[in-house]
Specification:
This protein is about 60% helix and about 0% strand. The chain has about 240 residues and is mainly α. Helix 1 packs across helix 11. It binds iron/sulfur cluster.
């Protein structure tokens, strides 16, 4: 969806002002929603499993699938590595695309066993860029999944971006709607202190805001805590007057 036309609304902030805006938006969202403490999981491994399972589905489905894996004693590196794909698929049915996701989980765990003695800490011990490349080399792990694993399970300071991030800052006039994943990530990391806690919280706040206030259709601008800075809101409220 083209929220703003290519040129209209993009404010061309300089780096310093863009950084200020990123921090301001964070503070406003945090004040409004409070801490989210995302990602909900008992272990770092459970976060990795959740990051793979959440592709294309909402979190409630993931919770059910993880619960099933726990009940069947499969929620461990060796549990998934040793299980047959069809058994894993049966347990994660609520997460949809279960055959593919079962294979992804098994491949991820086989990799951990073969390259890292089944130890996640060993995977995360290297530099962020190297761990990211390694994750991206695995079948079925794209940038958003790799970065979620890195940030929430590995506690590496990488910013996870997604469609909510794209929509929000497009509407605020920061970037155009055809910006790439890497461009969004680079600009956010450049504009913010490189802190794991901040990156974890900021991503979660953007998702909460995108699901509850800044929806794709009919955003609830009237109750939005950052409306005073929003180009989309300005353009649309002017249209109403
Ligand atoms: S004012 Fe409206 S369009 Fe702008 S960020 Fe808030 S909800 Fe989204």
């Amino acid at each position: 969806v083209n929220y703003l036309s290519r040129k209209q609304g993009v404010t061309n902030l300089n780096e310093k002002d863009e950084a200020k805006l990123f921090r301001y938006v964070y503070q406003k969202l945090y004040n409004h929603f409070g801490p989210s403490n995302w990602w909900p999981a008992d272990t770092a491994f459970e976060i990795c499993v959740g990051a793979i399972l959440t592709q294309g589905v909402n979190w409630l489905n993931v919770e059910k699938a993880i619960e099933n894996l726990k009940k069947e004693g499969l929620l461990s590196v060796y549990g998934l590595n040793n299980a047959e794909v069809k058994v894993i698929a049966g347990a994660i049915k609520p997460a949809l695309y279960y055959n593919q996701k079962a294979r992804k989980l098994k491949d991820f765990c086989s990799h951990l066993v073969q390259e890292h003695h089944g130890d996640l800490k060993d995977l995360f011990a290297k530099d962020s860029g190297l761990v990211r490349s390694e994750l991206l080399s695995l079948w079925g792990i794209g940038k958003e999944t790799a970065d979620s694993i890195l940030l929430y399970a590995g506690e590496h300071a990488v910013f996870v971006v997604d469609n909510y991030t794209k929509r929000l800052f497009n509407r605020l006039g920061v970037w155009q709607e055809d910006i790439s994943y890497d461009q969004m990530q680079t600009r956010l990391i450049k504009g913010l202190p490189e802190e794991v806690d901040l990156f974890q919280e900021y991503h979660a706040l953007i998702v909460i805001h995108g699901k509850n206030i800044c929806m794709a259709n009919k955003p609830k601008c009237d109750i939005c805590p950052i409306k005073e800075f929003c180009v989309y809101h300005k353009i649309h409220s002017e249209g109403k007057n």
